[in-house]
Amino acid sequence: MDMEKFEFRSIKPDEIKQAVAIEQICFPPHEACSAKAMTERIAAAPELFLVAVDKSTGEIAGFLNGVATDETSFRDDFFTDISLHKAAGKNIMLLGLDVLPQYRGQGLAKEIVNRYIGREKKCGRQSLILTCLEEKVEMYKKMGFIDHGIANSTWGNEQWHEMCCVIGK
Questions:
Q1: Which residues lie closer than 8 Å to 71 by C-beta, 6 or more apart?
Q2: In the chain, what's the furthest Cα-to-Cα distance?
Q3: Residue 1's pLDDT band (boundaries 50, 70, 90)?
Q4: Which residues pair with 52 in a beta bridge?
Q5: Rounded to an integer, what is the distance from CA 48 to the centroid of its chain?
């Protein structure tokens, strides 16, 4: 896929409804971020969303989002408690990589992650931490993440792997 067809940037306040809708498409109901939590996250940390906007439609094709913290281990509270976000935090807890089905399998997710890593490295962050299901571990390994095994997470009554990508000192 030609990445020139996308604009990569932080999310805008008027894109909340799009982000909520995309989250509902990309994740099953028991895993998806609620509209309330997504709205709070965008209001508190829009700079920690990286959206890929299809220039031909003006619509978001995918995004990656997280919150900043000095904590080094993922916990489920990051999904729902925006007060845990510390703007100057040295680590980012990634909370969702969403790519609409029609854009999958073409390298967009990898491009979003790579651009996010580059942006946060410039901001002086030390690491990106995420949880993912077993079937996504290899994909994230290819993007530079290291699998730390089973996470201390029961989000959506699933078993998650915690993965980390060190990007700074």
A1: 84, 89, 91, 93
A2: 41
A3: confident
A4: 8, 62
A5: 8
Q: 19: helix, coil or strand?
A: helix
Strands, sheet with 161-166, edge to edge from the N-terminal-most edge strand: 6-9, 49-54, 59-69, 91-99, 127-132, 161-166, 146-150
**Can you give the pLDDT at residue 135?**
95
pLDDT value of residue 168: 87
Q: How many whole angstroms separate alpha carbon 138 and alpha carbon 135? A: 7
| Cβ burial 64-90 (10 Å sphere, 16+ → b, else e) | bbbbbbebeebbeebbeebebbeeebb
On whether the CB atoms of residues 74 and 94 are closer than 8 A, the answer is: no
Residue-wise pLDDT for 89-138, tens only, equals: 999 999 999 999 999 999 999 999 999 999 999 999 999 999 999 999 99
Claim: this prediction has a pTM higher than 0.90 = yes
The residue whose two tokens read 């007060």 is 83
Structure tokens at 87: 């703007």
Neighbour tally for 15: CB within 10 Å: 19
Q: How far apart are CA 65 and CA 113, in angstroms?
A: 10
